[in-house]
Known about the structure:
Four copies of one chain form a homotetramer.
Chain A: E1 3-8, H1 13-23, E2 28-34, H2 43-46, H3 62-65, E3 70-73, H4 80-85, E4 92-95, H5 105-111, E5 121-123, H6 130-136, E6 139-142, H7 145-159, E7 168-174, H8 189-192, E8 197-198, H9 207-214, E9 219-225, E10 232-238, H10 246-253, E11 260-262, E12 280-286, E13 293-299, H11 303-318
Parallel strand pairs in A: 1-2, 1-3, 3-4, 4-6, 5-6, 7-9, 11-12
Antiparallel strand pairs in A: 7-10, 8-9, 10-13, 12-13
Amino acid sequence: MGIRVAVAGASGYAGGELLRLLAGHPEFDLVAATAHSRAGQPVAGVHPQLTGLDLVLGATEPAALADADLIFLALPHGQSAALAAALPDDAMVVDLGADHRLRDANAWARYYGGAHAGAWTYGLPELPGGRDEIAAARRVASTGCYAVATTLALAPLIAAGAVRPDDVVVVAASGTSGAGRAAKVHLLGSEVMGDLSPYKVGAHQHVPEIKQATGATGLSFTPVLAPMPRGILATVTAVPTGDADPRAVLAAAYADAPFVHLLPKGAWPHTAATAGSNSCHLQATVDVDSGRVIVVSAVDNLGKGAAGQAVQNANLMVGLPETTGLSVYGVSP
Amino acid sequence: MGIRVAVAGASGYAGGELLRLLAGHPEFDLVAATAHSRAGQPVAGVHPQLTGLDLVLGATEPAALADADLIFLALPHGQSAALAAALPDDAMVVDLGADHRLRDANAWARYYGGAHAGAWTYGLPELPGGRDEIAAARRVASTGCYAVATTLALAPLIAAGAVRPDDVVVVAASGTSGAGRAAKVHLLGSEVMGDLSPYKVGAHQHVPEIKQATGATGLSFTPVLAPMPRGILATVTAVPTGDADPRAVLAAAYADAPFVHLLPKGAWPHTAATAGSNSCHLQATVDVDSGRVIVVSAVDNLGKGAAGQAVQNANLMVGLPETTGLSVYGVSP
Amino acid sequence: MGIRVAVAGASGYAGGELLRLLAGHPEFDLVAATAHSRAGQPVAGVHPQLTGLDLVLGATEPAALADADLIFLALPHGQSAALAAALPDDAMVVDLGADHRLRDANAWARYYGGAHAGAWTYGLPELPGGRDEIAAARRVASTGCYAVATTLALAPLIAAGAVRPDDVVVVAASGTSGAGRAAKVHLLGSEVMGDLSPYKVGAHQHVPEIKQATGATGLSFTPVLAPMPRGILATVTAVPTGDADPRAVLAAAYADAPFVHLLPKGAWPHTAATAGSNSCHLQATVDVDSGRVIVVSAVDNLGKGAAGQAVQNANLMVGLPETTGLSVYGVSP
Amino acid sequence: MGIRVAVAGASGYAGGELLRLLAGHPEFDLVAATAHSRAGQPVAGVHPQLTGLDLVLGATEPAALADADLIFLALPHGQSAALAAALPDDAMVVDLGADHRLRDANAWARYYGGAHAGAWTYGLPELPGGRDEIAAARRVASTGCYAVATTLALAPLIAAGAVRPDDVVVVAASGTSGAGRAAKVHLLGSEVMGDLSPYKVGAHQHVPEIKQATGATGLSFTPVLAPMPRGILATVTAVPTGDADPRAVLAAAYADAPFVHLLPKGAWPHTAATAGSNSCHLQATVDVDSGRVIVVSAVDNLGKGAAGQAVQNANLMVGLPETTGLSVYGVSP
Lengths: 333, 333, 333, 333
């Protein structure tokens, strides 16, 4: 008899990936999945890739989730706080949305608006002390996709004092699933194929999360929509403080992390190699002309960037090995 | 202690997918992988998506494979027969290539050329009696990707006498991984993105395999290269002999097949829903204008079309449930 | 001083392509463009590729178009008839929609529904007598994209008696722009990239147009959505009546057609080669196994399949060379 | 009778685009095209999108080009200098390769190696004085694709003193045609679709060209290969020196440039809108968190980034309006 889990907000892309992972998880029993506007429909009608999964979507309300020992919230930003407040105290909760990530209420107000629900334990196990904090928590705010890609590349360098925190420049490109499943003209296949398109330039809502998680104090972050369904490639540059080898810093930080791989010298991360996995690939160098440290990271935005990360957190919360039911290997080509 | 398995020809796309499946298989121990020109290199250098898999490629020769109980051959067409002949008699062998699929030596000579190595047990478990034959075999010729997509759509209809075998028209489009990993200008990303390109029109080497497996006697088969990495969509049309409902015939044929899914009425297979899985999705109707039966099937050419199919066969050969280590669910979007 | 032209329904993909062609046309002056829901916006805000074109969209009503000598209608199916009826009698009109293509009111009722507006001169210049009819017409119904790809491949063979008209099988795949610019979940980039997806299988509304234009009496037509923005590849098979060489028939039919190219033997059409052009590429063979004639055609669905075709018709109507302002050459890669 | 032009190195992607532009140019007569390994083949066999162009490729040697008034060199880097030296003195030459771009022999030696051929007039008309210099030149080194995208975004800001030249960070992603047409495994469609892949991180050969053209003294430049055939999106960030509005600086710099478009506030450049055109789209803002200036530019790497730029230069050299035979508008979707 496994641990009973449920998913609220299962009709989006992160929700679908979460269902895929949970359906194949050896210790979790998927007992319920809900979706606001698709309640009553079989999962396979909403996610044809899950054909064979015999489950009907329920309405997104506390009663539909009450049977579960652990509940995943995969709702649009701003919608999980209210639902979370109505869930039983003894249920463990992993929120894939942004509602409980920020400790700074002002930053929440500025980038998201509305009341700040308060911060939960931040769900990035690879941060120092992360595993223990998550294992002890009943409520975990899983990371944003851009934040995880940037933080894994940058946080150890700032923590080690190897780079200055006040002049960080990040350009990160994401596959279109990161923009969600709502029908919008600018996300049509005809518009995105063959196209690279920057958005929210100069003021992206992920900036406060990235600063909080990395310790950066000055951050220029430009996101770009790329013509592929999945994947984030983050190019992170910062000014070194001395001669520390950024590869050595990263290698030490992730020596025991099963999902974070510093590639051999000369090999650079690329997104396809992480698709379908929970892995993050990293590489670093020092730019010969500018002297800046350049770190590149690649993740699957729906994997380590969302659903895989959430399952990793859930594994820790219930005392399982963090790798249970997750794949280190990508599905490629 | 699991069953010891090895892969010969591990540097191509089917080989990489096979390694991914075997590395995650709960009952198989991957003890060796070989590749002609990449011998001595770590697997992750050739397949970055397998970063974390600690294995070095060996040379493709019998000695490198001798430790295995079961050997997968993922070599170019025409190269597996010689290697197979040099393997120990007590090793089980699954060949992903074409060398041992055709029973008709003339068809081999016509479409492939060279000496005919003779036919092995044909590795499509969903054919009538297929599971038992494969379970009893020591040598299995796993199916071609186009053949599996077409055969699962068509064979039950011909076997049931529901359609005429002498006037079958198939147009099937494949993702580019089906064309292999050799560097060729017409397979460059710049050439294939945005492009649909037919090839070998009027005389494709998969025709005799499809005829053998389906019982078709007259077959027009046109393959098309499509701008995506994975997936085959086969549109199969044939002339009905009477009023049999093609959906009912297919439903009966696959009632006990865990990987073949006849979709609910009105839902049509599409390739993305099968990506990364070992599933085949099917749908059928009768064309209102021409009266022809139309069956559409979708598979992942590297999954049910190659590596997944090979693992399914191997599971049966060693007495495991056929689904062991394989996923019914696709990785999508 | 050129011929004054206007476009009604300029916010969709065909409308945008039409504006591009008209803005570069040496004899046409683009005096107005309208769009229902985008009226008042600059063209470049709706079609960023037309940045630099100084024109504001008007409301789609007769008054906004009255200044033009020739009016293009690029409206959704079912909407052009009403507008056309309200236009001045002395204005020439080219309709890119389906409203005036079908001569058979029953076929209209069955596939489109609503009142049948009556047929206009069919705008495919390459049909026998087509150029003269179009040159003499004041109202022209330009072809559908699937119809032009299929008709150019098939019509000469039926007209010459080289193939039987009663057993034609067509599978045609289209880029996503053929599905329009309305925001729909199944057309999102995340859904279409990596995906081949058949639709309206067994009963597509283009069947009556194709039958009317080709003379086919029995037609199985299966359309497939392909992961690319533009292009149609049609695979047309039919039963030969004798030994006529299909290449010879096609070569004769298009000897004087500047936009229809029978490729050299062994070269097969592919869509990317026609992107951005008004060309159709053709090739034909006889299948060695089935004996069926296979003809493959490629067009740009927005070019020869829509906007380019419309401009070609307009050129003929006003007495210009049919190639004026159109490109034989594609934009590739 | 037009100006006689020829293309050396016509079998690559830039060469193909150049042939397309020249075939449609109203004042240029394309009299010869050469290609090392494809000599003797018809152009349409090498570039199917140019079906209908009746021209056979010659061998790449001076005699084959001697008839032309103006010769375009579209050869691999390092190969044009030798050919150029053997051309008649009275022939005008536009080199699309890197051989004659760098004034600094040391930079050439460091990034390219081999003898430095010496610098020609740099072919970027939009630089201050550029048009006049090019109009007066007989030998012009046309820009690199990354250089043009970066320079148009950055040069006016440095020239105006609006940003510091010593701390510029650029991340630029290119479509795959920028990587050329040589058959390489990492450029196969199966590898690039769904993938973002950085390359030459920390030491790219375009750095000295960009520094020379922009006046930057400290430059971190990271190129990324993106899953699309065409297009470059450059994200350029720099530290402002004061309160100058970067939009105002750019608007002033390009007030008379027909191909460079500063988009309306709030609209950001994206690559698809420039595909097939000779345009560059620009937008700028100041990052709210870091205070850095962010400028984004989009070009077609084969258009304004290569072939279109070369034709624009040629137009100026022969005294034609710079826009002759070039399109401001993109082909999209």
